[in-house]
Amino acid sequence: MFQTLTEKLEAVFKKLRGQGKITEENVAESLREVRRVLLDADVNLHVAREFIDKVQKRAVGREVLASITPGQQIIKIIHDELVSLLGVSKTDIVEAHEPPTVVLVVGLQGSGKTTFSAKLARFLKGRGRNPLLVAADVYRPAAVDQLVTLGKQLDLPVYSEAGEDAVGIAARSVDFARRHVRDTVIIDTAGRMHVDDAMMNEIAEIKAKTRPHEILFVADAMTGQDAVNTARAFHDRLDFDGVVLTKMDGDSRGGAALSIRAVVHKPIKFIGVGEKLDALEAFHPDRIASRILGMGDIVGLVEKAQEKIDQEKAQRLGEKLRSAQFTLTDFLDQLREVRNMGPLDQVLGMIPGMNRIPAGAQVNEGALTRTEAIIQSMTIEERKRPSIINGSRRKRIAAGSGTTVQEVNRLLKQFEDMQKMMKKLSKGGLKRAMSRL
Fold first, then answer.
1. Residue 428 φ/ψ region, left for φ over 0, alpha for ψ in the -120 to 50 degree band, beta for the rest
2. Does residue 302 lie in a domain region?
3. What total number of domains does the chain contain?
């Protein structure tokens, strides 16, 4: 996410950090490069120009000129303006005073509305809500079946009617939700082009019949300016309440994210960061700005860990670490927990400085898979006591895991080194090291 944009901005900032003092000349030169980077990222021309103007007005102030770290000051100003551009603060889904809350999901065909509807239902269910999914896309083949399948995966009901019109289905779903004590109705509508008057009239009629508390426009982030232009057209007809950007995990440029709020003046509420149903994140402007500038997102990483990692297992692991009883079985469990947090490139992207690692060298998912296979090929006793693994056992483990003896040796050596370090720490080595410092 934002990889290309982040790398290009980092190159600009590297030059800026080398300046001994900020002047109007070097500020102007640096911001010209930033503007070029933004335009390369497919940011709206008017948005890019306005952004640079705001940064320049703040950057040439006396406070920055007197600073001993001018490069950091400029980066701080750019960060603050990015946050302002992206929306300042997180905006939540509204909740009706009298249930059910009706959420209408709209957008172009192929933007990911159906999958997002299911992701949103899972997201809200995890926060104590009781969603009802509504299959109101009566045009796309298998759209209803897709939503029903997703609903089963989530153990959530899906309201649908065979051979009925979308307006009637949407209207009756709200009454169904009231009768069945469902506090949130998520209506998945058909994809439509903004130039198709008949389809746009239909969605306007659905809005009139269901009186939604929230209309969310779903856009494919990878389409850049096309997503922004379409958002403007939909907003003119529907006056939607928020934007959802899907496929952000594949968007290295970030043009849609940086432009869309400034153009339609509505907040980005969610971003899709993968195909799985748990790959949905609430949009935090400050955290996204930090990611774009290569500062990571530690708060987001901690939240992801709290959601995905079994807390009881983590506590037991802590006790084993303190008593130096950490085994290869424990190592395998932790490896699976970390991988459960999502694609490792996304997890590492939340760690400050990881953007400076050359592309392609960040993550080797295959190596983790091989490590898992090696440990799974061991017996329970071998995982508890790796010291018993002799030459013949290493050959058997390598053959069983589809790896080489050298890879088995490497893993065992790394684990041995880790155990030695843990024993030192458990015997007060950390306290002694701190006292020496």
1. left
2. no
3. 3
